[in-house]
Amino acid sequence: MKEWFSGIVRGKTTDSRGKDKKVRHLFIVDATGFTEAENVLVADKFPVYKEPKVISLKREAIEAVYDECDTESAVWWKVVIGLEWLDVKGRTKVSKCTYMVSSETAGDVKDVINKCMQGSVRDWKILKIEATQVREIIVHKEKHNDELR
Q: Entry's InterPro entries (predicted)?
């Protein structure tokens, strides 16, 4: 399982009229720790903003990321799925898993989740689908030692 971190970058951008505007954008980063997550945000997003700063960084429990939509109007959706299982006494328990899906509508998100969970052995159901303010999910690939030389 990958480690995911959500970070908020604050900075200034230039709007269509040429004026500077203060913005805060939320990004999710794949990293091994807080330091690496901050370094990835600095390397990837700081050239885009004026006076950038990472103001928040926290660990996220995300099982998988499905980037299914490449259009500009795509939104990142947070989907919580309940996986049902039986405990020792025979009672039904539910484990919650969080997935991130890129799509335009909630109906498309359901289709993606149904397709991904099709071969699941456990019983499952979608508990919650909500649109997020996530701007981009950055999948960070660390360079091998040979590439650093």
A: DUF4494
CA 34, CA 46: separation in Å to the nearest integer? 17
Q: What is the pLDDT tens value at each position of the chain, 149 positions in all?
A: 478 999 999 989 888 888 889 999 999 999 999 999 999 898 888 888 888 889 999 999 999 999 877 777 789 999 999 999 888 998 999 999 999 999 999 999 999 999 998 887 788 999 999 999 999 998 876 655 545 54
Helical H segments across the chain, by residue range: 34-45, 106-116, 145-148
CATH class of 1-60: alpha beta
Could you tell me the sign of the dihedral formed by the alpha carbons of 127, 130, 133, 137, in that order? positive
Please report the sign of the dihedral spanned by the C-alpha atoms of residue 103, residue 105, residue 106, residue 111: negative
* Ordered DSSP codes for 32-85: SSHHHHHHHHHHHHGGGSEEEEEEEEEEE--SEEEE---STT-EEEEEEEEEEE
Cross-strand bridge partners of residue 103: 75
Strands 64-67 and 92-103: parallel
Name the pairing type of β-strands 4-14 and 92-103: unpaired
